[in-house]
Amino acid sequence: LTTPTSATPDSDGFLQCLLGNIPSGLIYTQGASNFTDVLASSVHNPRVYTGDMVRPLCIVTATDASHVQAAVRCGRAHGVRVRVRSGGHDYEGLSYRSLQQGDVFGVVDLAGIRAITVGSDAVWPLAPTAWVESGATLGELYYTVAKNNSEVAFPAGICPTIGVGGHFSGGGIGMLMRKFGLSIDNILDAKLVNADGDLVDRAAMGEDLFWAIRGGGGGNFGIVVSWKVSLVKVPSTVTAFNIVRTVDQGAIDVLTRWQEVGPTLPFDINMRVIIMGQQVTFQSLYLGKCSDVVPMLSNLFPELGMTGGDCLEMTWLQSVVFFNSWNPNAPVESLLSRGTSLSTFTKNKSDYVRRAIAKDDWNKIFPWFAMDGAGMIILEPHGGFIDTIPASATPYPHRSGVLYNIQYITFWPWGNDGSAATSWINNFYDFMGQYVCKNPRVAYVNYRDLDIGVNTVVNDVTTFDGGKVWGEKYFAGNFRRLAAVKAAVDPTDFFRSEQSIPPLVQ
Ligand code: FDA
Question: DSSP readout, 395-452?
């Protein structure tokens, strides 16, 4: 089936086509009484759920790859675009909303496609593998691979409710990344429904498309149904710790030094930094015992003043719970909770730093955390294994020479109009421009931010020049190759959103 998506969508034809190919109980149209519940079922940010949201014509809660194929084929045949949602954590809600008034589109929700199958064939030093379906959450993945073997893990993000589908599509940074890289550095194969509705694996899709789906951003090239990952080996006991220093206790000196130390520490340690108010938390995972990490840090980072009393020894799986909940005793079963969080509005932005910020400049930065509407920032150190991978090996270009990623987060509750928080993050981001990577200023695609640019569509196709504005910020020199892959696999721009990769039409 190759009928191009037309400019005038045939909504009725699309719905009839779905009903002819997918069990009706899996299709929720706008008029259905439980449509709103299904739409909200994995929403994590009311900012992008309320307000200007253009809602989907229908949601298909697929339980089998054939439903995904049918949705894409029906969409192609009747001129209705399809967006895909796995865990619903997109910071701008692009998996379930459109910003274009009048847009007619369907959503394929993959929460019902979430099996995780761990291979039993391999033993160390040959890494075991697992197939994980896109609708699984990171928490389900972590729990399944590590519950019965405390020496098996997978490198991915901190929040356990994130969906595998979107997360792997954009990169996947987390506590194991200095040792093992991002999630995308550990993916061996994938099964994807392409723009023709065919289900293809790595061999059938070809290496260009397989390269693009590992970090080139979600919702661009097709719908990935499942991923084959290489699991990693961790010690049965790891050490986790949070060391908190206030500005009055000299936090700025320690932070200034951390910028040099954090990215150059041995690969076995990841020390991220959370700054909120006048307080800095050095949050760390060491792949080994307390008795080894204390002397190591006294030698390499004496300014931190770590002692044995800071150590919490536990399994890697327990450390995942700890970093999410800050409670070392929370049950590992909590990783299996899915669901929504509609209580807090958030806005996020990101930067990368390649030259350490001077102490005098941190002194100018800290007053921002005492302002009205102030949020927080998280600094994720790079270096380690990430540095060893060439910038073009995957679409994630922020490799050698990057000291750390900055994520800016601001939040506000219901009843507050968010104006103070929004002004704070916008003004602070502008202020930080002088200290971070620029020309162009770069960003992490999984911390999606529509402020850095949105697509322009001409003659029903997204323009390359419009996409370049935001695309080179996320992907640097890899953007052009992503656009060339898009032109090869989806020339009619079926998988389109406000920040989808445009086809590079020669
Ligand atoms: P969602 O379902 O919203 O999808 C995100 C994007 O991917 C959309 O464009 C969607 O269309 C597309 N997509 C989804 N499934 C797809 C599929 N199967 N095939 C193709 N495209 C697909 N990141 C990080 O690296 N490290 C971290 O520690 C964190 N922490 C974190 C905490 C919290 C609370 C949030 C809200 C987010 C993060 N993130 C993060 C960012 C997160 O990695 C990012 O938002 C992911 O894209 C979310 O994936 P989901 O599947 O949950 O989102």
Answer: S----TT--EEEEEEEEEETTS--HHHHHHHHHHHHHHTTTS-TTTT---TTS--GGG
CA of 95 to the centre of ligand 1 (A): 9
CATH of residue 16's domain is 3.30.43.10
Length of the chain: 506
Q: What is the CATH number of the domain that holds 132?
A: 3.30.465.10
| ipTM given for this complex | 1.00
Query: Domain for residue 173, yes or no?
Result: yes
Task: Give, for 486, the enclosing helix (H) or strand (E).
Answer: helix 479-489
Q: Would 449 be classed as within a structural domain?
A: no
Q: Which residues line ligand 1 (CB under 6 A)?
A: 44, 83-91, 94-95, 110, 134, 157-159, 162-163, 165-167, 169-174, 218-219, 223-224, 446
Digit-by-digit pLDDT tens for the chain (506 residues) are 334 445 689 999 999 999 999 999 999 999 999 999 999 999 999 999 987 789 999 999 999 999 999 999 999 999 999 999 999 999 999 999 999 999 999 999 999 999 999 987 667 777 799 999 999 999 999 999 999 899 999 999 999 999 999 999 999 999 999 999 999 999 999 999 999 999 999 999 999 999 999 999 999 999 999 999 999 999 999 999 999 999 999 999 999 999 999 999 999 999 999 999 999 999 999 999 999 999 999 999 999 999 999 999 999 999 999 999 999 999 999 999 997 888 899 999 999 999 999 999 999 999 999 999 999 999 999 999 999 999 999 999 999 999 999 999 999 999 999 999 999 999 999 999 999 999 899 999 999 999 999 999 999 999 999 999 999 999 999 999 999 999 999 999 999 999 999 999 87
How far is residue 326's CA from residue 193's CA, in Å, rounded to a whole number? 38
Residues 251 and 271 in one domain: yes
* C-beta of residue 274 within 8 angstroms of C-beta of residue 229: no
For residues 17 and 102, membership in a common domain is answered with yes
Closest to 278 measured CA to CA, from 231, 245, 253, 316:
245
| Closest C-alpha to ligand 1, atom 46 | 167
Q: Which structural domain range is residue 202 located in?
A: 116-233
How many domains does the chain divide into?
3
